[in-house]
Amino acid sequence: MIAPVQIHKRLVIYVQGYDPRGLAEYYRMFRREFRRTCELYGLTGKVGSPQNDPKRFTTAWDVTTNGDGWQVETRYLFLRWEDIIRQDFARPVWWKIVQMYRTWGGLTLLNGVVWRMLKAHWRFGLFSLYPIVLLTAWLLLGAFVGTLCMKLVTSLGAPALVANIVGTVTGLGAFASMLWLTEPQTYLLYLCDDGVSTYQFAHRQRPDWEARMEVFAGYVVDAVRDSKADEAIIVGHSSGSFLAVDVLDRALTRDPQLGSHGPRVRLLTVGANLPIIGFHPEANWFRNRLRRLAVAPDIDWVDYQSRHDIMNFWPFDPVVGHGIVLEDDERRNPLVVSVSFRDLWKPGNFGFRRWRFFRAHFQFLMANERLGAAYDYYLICCGPLDLLTRAMKPQEAIAAMAAKTGPDRDRTTAG
Description:
Blueprint: E1 9-15, H1 22-41, E2 44-47, E3 51-53, E4 58-67, E5 70-79, H2 82-89, H3 93-110, H4 113-120, H5 122-155, H6 160-186, H7 188-202, H8 207-226, E6 231-237, H9 239-254, E7 264-270, H10 275-278, H11 284-295, E8 299-305, E9 335-338, H12 347-353, H13 357-361, H14 377-382, H15 387-392, H16 394-399
Parallel strand pairs: 1-5, 1-6, 6-7, 7-8, 8-9
Antiparallel strand pairs: 2-4, 3-4, 4-5
Helix pairs in contact: 3-5, 3-7, 4-5, 5-6, 8-9, 9-11
């Protein structure tokens, strides 16, 4: 068991996932949720203004957190690529639909990825089928409306050509209406772009993604080398998890001694969905990255998972689950930690929030509502003890807060 490490300075490098909202949303969320964490634990803190470098696709801000007898200075470096994501979103709707069927309805089913997902975590497997099922339902609804209108026009004595035109137009209109009107609730077009783009990346068909991740790898090496931090944490949430794995492995290729000099380097994956890349037979390149990180002598990797988030894999071993065979004395990573959202949310909020799948998925990046939980993103980023202590000795990490708050001081937030 490792000894706790007191942290005074920390470097956090956040690898953005597939989210077009980008910097503005994530900075607002960080500032808001950090404030709530401070209120919950009786801490004081300040989040500095974002320092944007558009030519380098990075934004950074400084955070100072003060507790009873301790202070931590955090440098938060946000690695951005929403410009590429927004280009994906600009693709024609018809292209998204055709490619959705090609990837999820055709090739993905044929190469066994969906079946492997269902076997590894049936809830995520069902969620992965949700977009193609819903898209098919909207198409069938449109066809039904179009056929109904065509028959109605025909019964009124209109020529067949007119009836066919009316049926086609009304059918397409019904489909388009359902698609657009329900998008804020279903995220269907977003999931089309996400699914198709992820498939392309798994098959190494996204040179724009790879070029940006290679640039990010250089930034990681430079940031760690130039930092005077006690700890450097590379963070990946959701699809950012497999990108963080990719970036860190590329960084290790650039600097094989990364983590053996300067701050200790940690990889933190939360709400991860690594198998959406790693389960593709063609993604041996990614499984090799997982293998190298599993045995990396100077890198510590912690993977937090939750059964209450259907958009991550739980329970799942990122090494064994990908069929990677290692000797017991050879493997170092990752340390897999299970999180219960019951410990994070007020009891009255749990039953409702767990069914808001996207809200639950983002809990990994949001403030807790209850004191004393083993997982707390803002204390990982800004608290006085290192990541491994929080993961392996959570009660000791909580005690180190030394906050003057009782066990019943829970915070209630808007649902």
